[in-house]
Specification:
mainly beta; 2 helices
Length: about 170
């Protein structure tokens, strides 16, 4: 299994619609960068957020997630409260080939602010339509017998901000 380069990412995006919309170069001026990079793609966060609020003293339970624990927000900047988190979606839609697995890592700009899964004890700003994370593409030597799509993964083809599902 090997990591794929900017050439492969660009070819797959242009010829197979792997990433839409696709930015063929790194956009950096005045924004947290996004677009294709040497060995990955820096995706943007859309201006739609679900911000966790613990007003109800909820327990975060992946088997029984209470949607009332979230406040919906749309806007150019999302303020994530201290020791909390927000769910969001990417601007880009990804169509991952059957023989490829991706790993998504946080952008170093946000990590330097203590925002990984927002471990900072301070309020944190997230800028919509700017880079939020880098997607790395690893191509397998052969196709898997059963893919995520074959299993009808519960997050397959999701649209919008999606809460945990059972």
């Amino acid at each position: 299994m090997s990591i794929q380069s900017d050439r492969w990412i660009t070819r797959m995006a242009k010829e197979h619609g792997m990433i839409e919309p696709f930015e063929s170069s790194q956009v950096r001026e005045g924004v947290i960068s996004y677009g294709v990079s040497s060995y990955g793609y820096d995706m943007r966060v859309a201006p739609e957020f679900k911000i966790f609020t613990n007003v109800l003293s909820s327990i975060v339970d992946p088997k029984n997630f209470d949607p009332k624990s979230f406040v919906e927000f749309e806007g150019p900047v999302c303020i994530v409260p201290p020791n909390s988190f927000a769910l969001a979606r990417s601007v880009e839609y990804f169509r991952i080939p059957r023989n490829v697995v991706t790993i998504t890592v946080g952008k170093s700009t946000y990590a330097r602010c203590g925002i990984i899964t927002n471990t900072t004890p301070l309020p944190a700003k997230i800028y919509a339509n700017e880079g939020i994370a880098q997607v790395l593409f690893f191509k397998g030597e052969e196709e898997p017998e059963v893919s995520y799509k074959d299993k009808k993964g519960k997050y397959q083809g999701q649209q919008g901000v999606t809460l945990p599902r059972m």
